[in-house]
Design brief:
This protein is an alpha+beta fold and 171 residues long. The chain contains three helices and eight strands, in the order ββββββαββαα. Helix content is 18%, strand content 35%. The two termini are 36 Å apart. The chain binds zinc ion (2 copies).
Length: 171
């Protein structure tokens, strides 16, 4: 959604759905959207600074990193970003701004396109190691069965035990 800064008195609440078609799926994520990404954002303007805050909801499916089964994932993200005009920003201030609690971005002109920011928020929130559930037993390294649905009696090799421990540690 494109918002015009000149149309904001103080605060503007924008509700809508992200235009997913504009963002081709990246190859390094297995996320599949089941519903359009919805947002309800409060856009506030103080002088030249624009803040955008509010919930973004994602209904998607992903493959579990342990058992490889697709599972549904609902995420409710809280977006909170600030934008400053590109023209007024000294180069040196860039580093400082990044240490702020809010993420700071730039805009040019008097229009802000919300979708790329929402898209980025969603991409940043995708779990690195998605799990269908916390206690997912994964796939048996010996017989290849999904141990959540087909328990097997394969003895655990010491090395894979260590691997599992390492995995749960990394998660
Ligand atoms: Zn799983
Ligand atoms: Zn097995």
């Amino acid at each position: 959604m494109l918002i015009r800064l000149t149309e904001i008195e103080d605060i503007l609440v924008v509700k809508g759905e992200m235009d997913t078609q504009r963002f081709p799926r990246t190859d390094d994520t297995e996320l599949t959207l089941l519903k359009p990404v919805r947002y309800e954002l409060t856009v506030a303007k103080f002088d030249d600074t624009v803040s955008i805050e509010g919930p973004v909801t994602v209904e998607a499916s992903m493959a579990c990193s342990r058992c490889l089964e697709e599972y549904n994932l609902s995420m409710s993200l809280q977006m909170a970003i600030k934008l400053t005009p590109k023209s007024t920003l000294p180069e040196a201030a860039e580093m400082e701004l990044h240490n702020d609690d809010l993420d700071v971005y730039y805009y040019e002109g008097d229009e802000i396109d919300l979708d790329p920011f929402i898209y980025e928020e969603v991409m940043l929130s995708i779990p690195v190691r998605p799990l269908c559930r916390e206690e997912c037993k994964g796939i048996c390294p010996t017989c290849g069965r999904n141990r959540n649905t087909e328990p097997c009696d394969c003895p655990e090799a010491p090395s894979s035990l260590l691997g599992e421990k390492l995995k749960s540690f990394l998660n």
